[in-house]
Amino acid sequence: MKQTRILMGMPVTLEINDARATELILDNVFSYFEYIDETFSTYKEQSEISRINRHELELEKSSEDMKTIFALAEETRLSTNGFFDIQHEGYYDPSGIVKGWAIFNAAEIIRQKGFENFYVEAGGDIQAFGLNSRGQEWRVGIRNPFNIDEIVKVVSISNCGIATSGTYIRGQHIYNPNNCNEIITDVLSLTVIGPDIYEADRFATAAFAMGRSGIMFIESLQGFEGYMIDQNKMATYTTGFERYTFHD
Q1: CB burial class (10 A; 0-12, 13-18, 19+) of residue 113?
Q2: Cα–Cα distance between 71 and 49 in angstroms, integer?
Q3: Which residues, 6+ apart, have CB-to-CB distance to 187 below 8 Å?
Q4: DSSP state, residue 212
Q5: Fewest CB atoms less than 10 Å from the CB: which of 16, 72, 89, 219?
Q6: Tens-digit pLDDT profile for residues 125-148
Q7: Is the pLDDT score of 120 beyond 70?
Q8: Is the pTM of this model over 0.90?
Q9: Using CA atoms, how far apart are residues 137 and 35, in angstroms rounded to an integer?
Q10: What is the CATH number of the domain that holds 47?
Q11: Domain enclosing residue 174, as ranges
Q12: CA separation, residue 244 to residues 131, 200, 225 (Å)
């Protein structure tokens, strides 16, 4: 069973490779994403994060999920030497950590129902478990940032997450917190495969903000692999990335 809905301003796709999957299970997961949007969207006037930014709601009095996201964001800021930071000029935007965390939690909703073969995708970031309908690992294409209709690399993944940070679709929305005036132009796309989508997503965002040195940061992380495409159309990837590459 497979279904896609537009939520959080992006396509969200669920596919469960199991005859026992029902519409109700999909509805539960999509409802969770709707809750995430209502809570964390900086575009929704009455979301918790918007109320925090307007100083109408103190973090201490916010939901447990909001407190969790702020704690995870601070942990990520410290572990990336400040290259990940949800605060900018007194304004909080947790989207760089919320998406991966939400995808992971959505996948847990499915997994706890006893399903083993499925994936959850939101805006190109994926948490995959088990195998697809052909009994193979899930295949994911990495887009060419110079031509988004072209796939430059296909990877096979299972029981892990894959996330891509880049400027080729949404424009310059990622910045270097250590130098907010710096426009990142030397890297167009950085894909990270990690133990789960939460980990892959947060480190992909931080590594992209590092520019060319970001791929070396991913190289230094145990259990992570990365694939970077720069402004010269050159690809650089970590030493263990090839083991994920799918070959016909």
Answers
A1: middle
A2: 14
A3: 166, 208, 211, 212, 214, 228, 229, 230, 231
A4: G
A5: 89
A6: 999 999 999 999 999 999 999 999
A7: yes
A8: yes
A9: 30
A10: 3.10.520.10
A11: 2-244
A12: 14, 15, 9
